[in-house]
Amino acid sequence: MGVIVYNISATSAKVSWPRSPDCLDTFYSVMYDPNWNSLLMGYKRKSFMHEERIPVSQTSTHLANLHPQTAYFLCVTCQAANPSSILPVFFTMSAYDKPNQSNQLDFLNKKPNISPQNM
């Protein structure tokens, strides 16, 4: 699933993904966690600290109450699916950095889209 994380700030981020016609459930699960140790032991639903349930009519959400300068594992699945064995990682900014819409990670293309003025 091509997940894009954008508008990344110190404490929040927006996540979007393409609609999945194969998802016959009523919601998507957006799971994220900064705890690398529990996730490296195995990619299981119970390993994720946070899980948001998003109706299948939506293909984006806003993640709030994140910790500054922290790496988060992220997984978006159909309700009944298990997490992928390859999970994207995104990093929140410092509390002193200003959020910018060009701070985006496109996990479908596996490359950051970060403008030079933010480096």
From TrEMBL:
<dbReference type="InterPro" id="IPR003961">
    <property type="entry name" value="FN3_dom"/>
</dbReference>
<dbReference type="InterPro" id="IPR036116">
    <property type="entry name" value="FN3_sf"/>
</dbReference>
<protein>
    <recommendedName>
        <fullName>Fibronectin type-III domain-containing protein</fullName>
    </recommendedName>
</protein>
<feature type="domain" description="Fibronectin type-III">
    <location>
        <begin position="1"/>
        <end position="95"/>
    </location>
</feature>
<dbReference type="Pfam" id="PF00041">
    <property type="entry name" value="fn3"/>
</dbReference>
<dbReference type="InterPro" id="IPR013783">
    <property type="entry name" value="Ig-like_fold"/>
</dbReference>
